[in-house]
């Protein structure tokens, strides 16, 4: 892919609150269709139609584009969101996140991580040892941005996800986002559940674990969701980490394995 790449970002709000956002990294022939699809998404949001939609298109500096790989995906089935959160905490601990930090993230997402008690626009940055919040703005958070798939990788991903009944925008976009987050050396792991009231699945991602989908991380009808990016101890410059998450372009040209589903078993 030697054509110019463009970062396409959408941010929609309703009632002065964040409603929906999306990011893509793509070439010129796809821009119009993708932008139209994002406008449609914001207008048809399950929490109500967007009242304000911002679309930003920016050419990215070709010299800065890194190549990336999607993490392997597997699913752990859990009976309900309580078991899902227990599983998420256990997985995070396997990835080197302290129990304190894992609990702090889960509690914040449960309560609504922005100061208004609603979902944030972006992610929390959480110190992987102390559990302290590190993002400079607790409403906006940090948005992972400027990432996307090559057309070949996108087609192969859809084929592999389809074989597992998982070819939907939630999973596709979250895998790309997790790849971007895990490509930043200062980040150890990610936890996510959606703010879409109808979508209860979520995931934990880390280099050691890949992308582990948990079938329930919140009850149906719950609008509070969000993301936590866990920052490695001794990470150094937090602004450098934010700059990489938000501005450094990552083009994914290789996808990982899409595994099956197994029930989660608590280790005793
Ligand atoms: P979604 O998976 O789109 O339902 O998003 C769930 C939550 O994750 C949102 O409410 C945001 O708090 C957060 N989020 C969504 N997209 C991003 C992103 N690109 N970077 C960081 N956080 C995000």
UniProtKB/TrEMBL annotation:
Protein's UniProt keywords contain ATP-binding: yes
The keyword Magnesium is assigned to this record: yes
Keywords: ATP-binding, Biotin biosynthesis, Ligase, Magnesium, Nucleotide-binding
Metabolic or biological pathway, per its Swiss-Prot or TrEMBL entry: Metabolic intermediate metabolism; pimeloyl-CoA biosynthesis; pimeloyl-CoA from pimelate: step 1/1
EC number in record: 6.2.1.14
Transmembrane segments: none
GO molecular function, one term: 6-carboxyhexanoate-CoA ligase activity
EC primary class: ligase
Cofactor: Mg(2+)
Reactions this protein catalyses: heptanedioate + ATP + CoA = 6-carboxyhexanoyl-CoA + AMP + diphosphate
Superkingdom of source: Bacteria
GO biological process: biotin biosynthetic process
Subunit structure, interactors included: Homodimer.
NCBIfam families: PRK01322.1 (NF002360)
Protein name: 6-carboxyhexanoate--CoA ligase
Species assigned in the record: Desulfuromonas soudanensis
């Amino acid at each position: 892919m030697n054509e110019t790449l463009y970062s396409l970002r959408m941010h929609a709000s309703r009632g002065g609150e964040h409603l929906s956002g999306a990011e893509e990294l793509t070439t010129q022939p796809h821009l119009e269709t993708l932008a139209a699809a994002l406008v449609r998404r914001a207008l048809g949001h399950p929490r109500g139609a967007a009242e304000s939609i911002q679309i930003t298109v920016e050419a990215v500096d070709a010299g800065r584009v890194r190549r990336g790989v999607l993490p392997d995906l597997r699913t752990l089935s859990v009976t309900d969101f309580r078991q899902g959160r227990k599983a998420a905490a256990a997985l995070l601990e396997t990835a080197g996140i302290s129990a304190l930090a894992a609990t702090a993230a889960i509690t914040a997402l449960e309560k609504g991580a922005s100061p208004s008690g609603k979902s944030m626009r972006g992610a929390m940055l959480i110190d992987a040892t102390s559990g302290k919040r590190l993002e400079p703005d607790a409403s906006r958070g940090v948005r992972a941005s400027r990432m996307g798939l090559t057309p070949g990788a996108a087609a192969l991903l859809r084929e592999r996800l389809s074989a597992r009944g998982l070819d939907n925008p939630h999973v596709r976009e979250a895998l790309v986002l997790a790849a971007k987050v895990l490509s930043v050396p200062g980040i150890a792991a990610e936890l996510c559940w959606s703010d879409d009231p109808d979508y209860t699945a979520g995931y934990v991602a880390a280099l050691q674990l890949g992308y582990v989908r948990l079938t329930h991380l919140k009850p149906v009808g719950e609008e509070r969701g969000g993301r936590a990016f866990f920052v490695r101890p001794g990470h150094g410059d937090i602004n450098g980490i934010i700059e990489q998450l938000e501005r450094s372009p990552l083009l994914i040209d290789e996808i990982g394995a899409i595994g099956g589903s197994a029930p989660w078993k608590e280790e005793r």
